[in-house]
Amino acid sequence: MPATVVVGTQWGDEGKGKLTDHLGREMDMVVRYQGGHNAGHRIVVNGEAFALQLVPSGILYDHVTPVIGNGVVVDPAVLLEELDALAAKGVDTSRLVVSGNAHLIMPYHQELDRVTERFLGKNALGTTKRGIGPAYADKAARVGLRVQDLFDPKIFRQKLDVALKEKNAVLAKVYNRLPLAASEIADRYLGEYAPRIEPMVGDTVGMVHDAMGKGRQILLEGAQATFLDLDHGTYPFVTSSNPVAGGACTGSGLGPRDIDRVIGIAKAYVTRVGAGPFPTEQQNDIGELLVERGHEFGTNTGRKRRCGWFDTVMLRQAVRLNSLTEVALTKLDVLDTFESVKVCVAYEADGVRYTHLPYHQSTFHKAVPVYEELPGWRTDLSTATEPGHMPAAARDYVAFLSEQIGVPVRLVGVGPGREQTVSFATA
Q: What is the pLDDT of residue 84?
């Protein structure tokens, strides 16, 4: 049974957690394939909110095996804290399996993340300062420590000593910071974290292939989104991994032919956290209203999100990059009070009209959106359970977006709850 990928199509925070939870009822395994605890998912079940960072959304279904794949970077302290919080709410966390090939976030990664951002000043990238970027950098430089290293103390200490020799030199000589003690780090990781994590670790590549061979339903869940992708995003204002659908293969161990459905998640408007270009951003009352109605503050960081109108130019690019088969649109209810809504259908820059994303970042930075304005619906959508319950203007908005991006919008979110999802399955 081929797998399904869920991928964000904007700058993150599109509601991937809710969609993964929605699809979870029909899945046997949910695999997180990249990112770290810099991206949070907020899921509301029966009025109770669950904030997930590292643990796959499938944890909330008893029949699902949640997997943290090899492409993820793991902060052991955060993982254990999150599992404890879920257990305190009555969630069975014993089913979680963690890849031994996933890389560890170490204290020096977090320290380097913090001091580097301060050092960059006005050119800061707006990272969450949680060590994700430096951990991926060490992975690429082949000096990273992996989850499996926790269970070989000799190897762990050897690798830690090699890494700290360089990191402490940089911290001291470049950033005037005190060196970190290898013994303290090793004692904490080997003495506190390893015993609790070891029962969770397994051959996740073998597991997903065995499940596929048995016809099980597998969902691959990414963090961040298409335009935060290291290769295809608005570089350098990106994450340090590949959230695009192609990253689901490298981050889980599945091959391209193992995937036949790619669902792109998009908000009914656009948000962004941190620095970087944003053509449709509304730095005005409209933007503030979107923040207020959409509760646009980061799940993990609490940072206020920048808000703007829906951008079909971005979405057409996301369709291309991810081979999207369909789109799930979230937070349509946030637009309920607007008399009219705008949709960006093209950009203009230097006298040229662009219907697809310009390749050069300088062009993108000065792109001026070309809008089409559609009538609003001024109706509360939160209780809608099928398209017929929605006013014609809301259905027309969904249809317009689908026509513009070239793939069907199959699901529409009209509120934060698990049940507040309208199926446009025949669209």
A: 94
Tokens 């979110």: give the residue.
Answer: 413
Question: Is 399 in a helix, a strand, or coil?
Answer: helix
**233: its two tokens:** 């995003």
pLDDT at 427: 45
> Looking at residue 426, what is its pLDDT?
56
Q: What pLDDT, in 10s, does the model give residues 95-111?
A: 999 999 999 999 999 99
Per-position DSSP letters for 67-127, written without gaps between them: EE-TTBEE-HHHHHHHHHHHHHTT---TT-EEETTSEEP-HHHHHHHHHHHHHHGGG----
Query: Would you call 21 a catalytic residue per the annotation?
Result: no
Averaged pLDDT for residues 349-361? 94
Task: State the DSSP string of 244-261.
Answer: SHHHHHHHHS--GGGEEE
Residue 278's CB is within 10 A of a number of other CB atoms, namely 22
What b-and-e string marks burial along 245-275, b requiring 16 or more CB atoms within 10 Å of the CB? bbbbbebbbbeeebbeebbbbbbbbbbbbbb
pLDDT at 19: 85
Which candidate, 64, 74, 69, 76, places its Cα nearest to that of 33?
69
d(CA 307, CA 285): 11
Phi/psi for 157 (5° steps) reads -65, -40
Query: pLDDT grade, residue 53 (50/70/90)?
Result: confident
CB 29 within 8 A of CB 211: yes
**Sign of CA pseudo-dihedral 188, 194, 195, 196:** positive
Count of residues in the chain:
427
Residue pair 329/390 in contact (Cβ under 8 Å)? The answer is: no
Provide the H-helix boundaries in 178-302.
Answer: 182-186, 194-197, 204-213, 245-252, 285-294
* pTM to 2 decimal places: 0.91
**Encoded tokens for 121:** 């000043």
CA atoms of 396 and 335, how far apart (whole Å): 13
Cα separation of 163 and 209, whole Å?
Answer: 34
Active-site choice (13, 75, 149, 311): 13
The residue with tokens 């996301």 is 318
Question: How many Cβ atoms sit within 10 Å of the Cβ of residue 88?
Answer: 8
Distance, in Å, from the CA atom of 144 to the CA atom of 160, rounded to the nearest integer, reads: 9
Catalytic residue list contains 41: yes
Annotated catalytic residue: which of 22, 37, 41, 103?
Answer: 41
Give helix 107-120 / helix 132-141 axis angle, nearest 10°.
110
Strand, helix or coil for residue 243 = coil
